[in-house]
DNA sequence: TTTTTTCTCCCCAGATCTGGTGAGGGGGGG
DNA sequence: CCCCCCCTCACCAGATCTGGGGAGAAAAAA
């Protein structure tokens, strides 16, 4: 069912979209996919964007360019309730359920509507390795009832589409997955893990039942392998590369 | 299509499973769901488990209890190529594509088979807020061809099921969330970011054009907010929670 | 407008980490 | 059989970090 009530052959269209995404070999394809999805479902906007404390790493979608520029230039990531809310959640969320109290948020919403974003929205948070975070959003202009029916009918599709978008985005951004070239020895992993858990060198050594001298050898060895300048840096890199868990 | 080739009404059964998961209000329900899914697809095992360096936080599934105990007791998380491999990936992965070189991994695989895990496997990595990480795995005993066909036919279903499992697990484990609320101030983010990049305190202060004393205040403040015991711990947590990027 | 948070600066002593070098035993792979 | 990597231990001096105080101005939230 499209948002306007007309029928679509749900499963086939979803498969077509996902396969198209799978076959995409360039960023352009993701942009085109957002437009196809928008047209297929008959909604106003479809957007995928990678969210990053440093600003948008990559994004594609059907929002007006003016709005996108405004958003970036104003650094709205900091106040956008969609970002903030989704960042703490796992399951997709309807914009109505987010926290729109607060002056900045209200003003932001109003401005977004002025740029044609629509009065309804539904966002799917997605997380990849190394703390990567992205959002897949659909938005529209309609009544609450219509929108509820639409999201209820398609939330699963949207989760899958979001997943495939993110998969491609990760493929295109390979510096996220440099090479697992340098692996750490088991003992080095232990050391890095405990340090990342807040243990001091002395505590770590005691926990591992080795002398602090030996521990230092591991730390230095790990630091060398990871190309890190100090212990904190080494732990940060080990975490970022998924070599240890906390 | 089931793994043995017989047909199932794909969409309806999937919907039933997902709705059952949605309606579950106790951990027991997840356990039952794994068994239902196993029977529905006609495979050997279905497992969902939360992965954590400290050991398994929560898990349910159809593996033999003996194997589960053995796994925990031996702390196989450290060497399990499924864990290690999925931790660096986003998309689900067939076990065959993982790295099974290495003596420990080989021995592990053999032991797992001895406990009836099966010779084929397919695991879906899932990530939630705060660096939460979990795996949803299906395993079986069959030829490569049969397994390939099965995973190709159902990988999308499995992604969705994994998503719903994790959603419930997060609901049941709300103590992940409280600490999450703590956000860092912009300056604190700057400090943590530079430290994670390997800068010393002196370099960081200089880069931010503030005195080292001031920088220390940020570090301590961030450490406090993050409940960290030292700078390295604070950086590790900030990274794990996605508050900073490197 | 009041209150809260953020940003900036300062002191000091003791604990902790870092850098560079050396050395012996054990296990796996070529 | 040899080589390379992993694990273990040791010394020392100087650089760096930590803990616990206090304080004022500006900005944001209530």
Automatic annotation (TrEMBL), chains A, B:
Entries under PROSITE patterns matching the protein: HTH_LUXR_2
Domain HTH luxR-type stretches: 177-242
GO molecular function: DNA binding
DNA-binding listed as a keyword: yes
SMART domains documented for this protein: HTH_LUXR
GO terms classed as biological process: regulation of DNA-templated transcription
Transmembrane segments: none
Xref: InterPro entries: Sig_transdc_resp-reg_C-effctor, TF_LuxR_autoind-bd_dom, TF_LuxR_autoind-bd_dom_sf, Tscrpt_reg_LuxR_C, WH-like_DNA-bd_sf
Keywords: DNA-binding, Transcription, Transcription regulation
Protein name, as recorded: LuxR family transcriptional regulator
Annotated source species: Marinibacterium profundimaris
